[in-house]
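Dear colleagues,

As part of the handover before I leave the project, I'm documenting each prediction I ran so the next person doesn't have to rerun anything. This entry is a single chain, and its sequence is reproduced below.
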Amino acid sequence: MAELISGKVTQQPNDKPASRLKILFNLYNLLEDPCSRFSVYLSALNLAINGKVTEHVLPSFKQIDSFLKGWNIGVLDQRQLFLTISNVLKERKSLAKESFKFLTKYMATLSGEDAPVLGQAKDEAVCTIVEFVKTPDMFQLIVMSCGISKMLHSTFVVLFLLCACSS
């Protein structure tokens, strides 16, 4: 039922997208099923992107780790979510650090994958390295944050595997 409602609400993303987002977030708060909640959140995120009102979903990104625990979603859904959020944040120059964090979370989900899956992530791997180099205080941030440091380590392992697969 939730997917049906969210599908109807997102059909015309340019028609009062902020009001439509409120409807989706209200629906999200009413739901108890984790899968339905994730589906509605993803619908809201896509509506915000398509309706060009991403500022309304930015605050929710701070709660993603908490949401993930409740949603209990698979790796493929996590990848889609992390990459989508990273792209939303990348559009805002002031949120480059946050974009990088989600990009490294995305890359960390690729650890242990086989060559075809890694091959699909080459563009994101290159983007991760470029963002790391472009942000001068990123190294300091990574050294200070153990969690990000672990993700970056996973990212570089994945990048190494990508280079090995492409040669």
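The first helix runs from residue 2 to 9. The chain is about 75% helix and 0% strand.

All the best with the project,
I.
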